[in-house]
Amino acid sequence: MSVHIVAFGNERGGYSEDDLQSSLIWTYLGRSALVSETDNSLLLNSANYLRNPSFIEYQARVFGNVRLVVHDCPLWDIFDSDWYTSRNLIGEADIIVIKYSVNDKSSFQEIKDIYALLIKKALNHCSIPVIIAAVGARQNEVPCTCPLCVSDRRSCVTASEGIQLAKELGATYLELHSLNDFYIGKYFGGVLEYFMIQSLNQKSSEKMKKRKKTQKCHEIKPPQLEQPAAFQWELLEEHITKKLKDPGIVELVLEKVKCILKIPGKVNNSRNCRSYVSKRPLQLCNSSLRLFFNTTVLADVMFKIQGAVVPAHRAVLVARCEVMAAMFNGNYIESNSFLVPVFGISKDTFLSFLEYLYTDSCCPASILQAMSLLICAEMYQVSRLQHICELYIITQLQSMPSRELASTSLSVVSLLRKAKFHNSDCLSNWLLHFISSNYLIFSQKPEFEDLSVEERNFVEMHRWPSSMYLKQLSEYRNYIHSRKCHCVVM
């Protein structure tokens, strides 16, 4: 059994490699009497070791034989540069810790205005305990009445501001004036260990419930329901090997697919996925160009869309989009026009598209918005944005519980139609398998009749659960009813 803790923020007010062993998490692991062994490793998003650390992983043993895994993310940039990794970290967490320095007001303001909302959205009403730790002694505790000291007076984060943030997140608020034995061991450690025990009790209870449900009747075994196959893995390997002659490239592509789809029996080691992530090249620095997004400063082109005007900069557009490069450099009317009309796209979608060109990142608010952005990306031939939208749609649909999937008004068949029409083969193939894997839900929806004959045949062939299993299950239930077979435990 294990407990997974994810910590965000830097309690030192600035990040450096020398502060690792004096951080809140490391200090707790080093001083806690519960910890029997520790190990940490620094994982990077790029080959640049000193400048771009993503998170630090600590592993330890607590309560004797319980495995403790801690991911400490000192930089909030992980939400901007790798939104999917940060979302997965939050999804796998049993406890979340948010840290900040009480003397770094600007960092706290970013947490409150931006990152707290992203964390709350990723939690999605889950009952994961959150601890907010305000670290340090305030340097300007007593405010000065002199008008010249207004900036100093506002440089500290007050306790009321931290408590208000904790209320918004439903979190536990702690003030740690120093990283000594009292604040770390008894104060912070006591609260953290309380939530750890709660998490272990909940997991033990769920394990017992599963064990009771899997008790078998002694006279006959029920039919075995195999898990739905995402696709035929061997067939995929064969096709990729034929098209890509280089074995090294084939292995890299397969590892990427395994990490995204989490194939059962193929990849169970998260380190492989992390090693792939660490090999990605550095992306566009989104902190500088973001200042020019949707502003008239130095703008040399205006897009007219749905009655509104959106400013932009030709240099950025030409550098980031080949279609726009051809449009502004070729023999087209747009090359000499200051006002360029845009048709067939909503204003919000086009703004999201421009935001990606300027910042190299995007965060769709919904599946429908992601599909609209995918269509826009296909129109302007921005393949990486298409893949990001595809992955977002897949991730959102995968995380939907069956009850929500059955009651949602979202039409998956309509998404399939749009994906096929706009040449999104990866998404359209996945949606077909998704419909097949949730056959009992989609077969009851009116939209199921809109599938083509070819699509219907594919779904019937790959449906889950299969018709053979349902037949065996019916026979088993009839046998149990006729023999009045009761479970041995009962």
Protein described:
This is Rho-related BTB domain-containing protein 3 isoform X2. GO terms for molecular function: GTP binding; GTPase activity. Residues 299-360 form the BTB domain. It is a single chain. This protein is 50% helix and 13% strand. The protein is built from 22 helices and ten strands. The chain has a seven-stranded mixed sheet, with helices on both faces. The chain has a three-stranded mixed sheet with strand order 9-8-10. It is flat and about 70 Å long. The two termini are 28 Å apart.
Sequence-ordered SSE layout with sheet pairings:
Layout lengths: L1 E7 L15 H8 L6 E7 L8 E10 L3 E8 L4 H4 L1 H10 L2 E7 L3 H19 L6 E6 L14 H4 L5 H11 L2 E5 L4 H33 L19 H11 L3 H15 L8 H9 L7 H4 L11 E5 L2 E5 L1 H7 L1 H8 L9 E3 L5 H13 L7 H13 L3 H16 L3 H6 L4 H10 L3 H13 L1 H4 L10 H10 L4 H17 L7
Parallel strand pairs: 1-4, 1-5, 5-6, 6-7, 8-10
Antiparallel strand pairs: 2-3, 3-4, 8-9
Choose one word for the global shape: flat
Ranges where pLDDT stays below 50 over 5 or more residues in a row are 38-52, 147-153, 262-283
Strand content: 5-15%
**CATH superfamily of the largest domain, called what?**
P-loop containing nucleotide triphosphate hydrolases
Q: What is the CATH fold-level name of the largest domain?
A: Rossmann fold
Structural class: alpha/beta
Tally of individual helices = 22
From the alpha-carbon coordinates, what is the Rg to the nearest angstrom? 27 Å
Tell me the number of strands. Answer: 10
* Mean pLDDT metric: 79
What is the count of distinct domains?
3
